[in-house]
Design brief:
With about 300 residues, this protein is mainly beta. The chain is built from one helix and 26 strands. The chain is about 0% helix and about 45% strand. It has a five-stranded mixed β-sheet, with no helix packed on it. Strands 4-5-6-7 form a four-stranded antiparallel β-sheet, with no helix packed on it. The protein has a four-stranded antiparallel β-sheet with strand order 13-14-15-16, with no helix packed on it. The relative contact order is 0.07.
Length: about 300
């Protein structure tokens, strides 16, 4: 029987398809599963999974396609990306998805920002200020009062949208102490219980910042065993107790806000209870508070 919804199903991505875990066993879904094209993935190299609680469906982002898994029929539907002229955009390569409080679904890609149009079932390219439209969008994260943070290859920006999806960008801060951070290559965004934004910078480290304060920058320090183990930050997530979990090229780092120290967790050869592999690509906390760590 087909699953009626996704609460008890865990999906995992690989370069050869999608793995679905129902609590008892894994099922691998690949591009070549059967001849019915609606039942298979258009591509097997899966990069991102996003469970859309607004519609109770799973978005599956591969290298060149955006696909939606439909649990009621156990199949997939593909959605196109359109440019300003209505032409299909190829090779969009989605980096992040986010549905805001007004119900708009945003997609950050290497070609810029898109929003999903429910009526036409297409992703429409968003007109942005000159220059920003050329940036690769790597992270999207909600702020307050309808504003949304956007991490790009050329810096950190904040925008909001009206009911039609038209967007307005906030002015960049003039404070010199924020300039370097706002111009960094931001690939990850997370917010902790104390209101600090954690901003992963491409292969350089991570910022912790709250409005009105000077940003704090964390990097690997050879002489400090409580620093980040590596500057190539791949994942950021907050656990139920408020700690920040950071995945890097070399392992897992757990930041305790009270001690302001990182605890390092690494793969240990021959120890089946250690981290599965050296590099951490994703971190997810389920409803029970258990951490799921994607490694490679």
């Amino acid at each position: 029987s087909h699953p009626s919804h996704l609460v008890h199903i865990h999906f995992h991505t690989t370069s050869i398809g999608l793995n679905r875990f129902d609590g008892h066993r894994f099922r691998t879904i690949t591009q070549e599963e059967n001849e019915d094209l609606s039942s298979v993935l258009p591509e097997s190299d899966i990069r991102i999974l996003y469970f859309d609680s607004f519609i109770q469906k799973l978005w599956v982002c591969s290298v060149n396609r955006m696909t939606q898994y439909r649990p009621q029929t156990d199949d997939f539907q593909t959605f196109p990306f359109l440019d300003a002229s209505g032409n299909t955009h190829q090779n969009t390569s989605v980096n992040c998805l986010f549905r805001d409080d007004s119900g708009i679904l945003w997609a950050g890609t290497r070609r810029g920002l898109y929003r999903f149009d429910e009526q036409t079932a297409t992703f429409l390219w968003c007109s942005q200020p000159k220059g920003i439209d050329r940036f690769e969008i790597k992270a999207i994260y909600p702020d307050e009062n309808g504003w949304i943070w956007m991490g790009t290859s050329q810096g950190l920006f904040k925008f909001k949208a009206d009911s039609k999806g038209d967007i307005q960008f906030a002015d960049q801060p003039e404070d010199s102490s924020l300039q370097k951070m706002f111009e960094s290559d931001i690939r990850l965004i997370c917010k902790d219980d104390n209101g600090y934004l954690w901003l992963g910078v491409q292969e350089s480290g991570i910022y912790a910042w709250k409005a009105g304060e000077v940003p704090r920058f964390f990097q690997h320090e050879l002489s400090d065993p409580f620093s980040l183990d590596n500057n190539d930050v791949r994942a950021i997530s907050k656990d139920p107790s408020g700690r920040i979990w950071i995945g890097t090229f070399l392992g897992l780092n757990i930041y305790n806000p009270q001690t302001q120290r990182f605890q390092r967790v690494h793969h240990q050869e021959g120890n089946p209870k250690s981290l599965g592999s050296g590099s951490v690509r994703s971190i997810f906390f389920d409803k029970r508070g258990s951490a799921w760590i994607g490694t490679y």
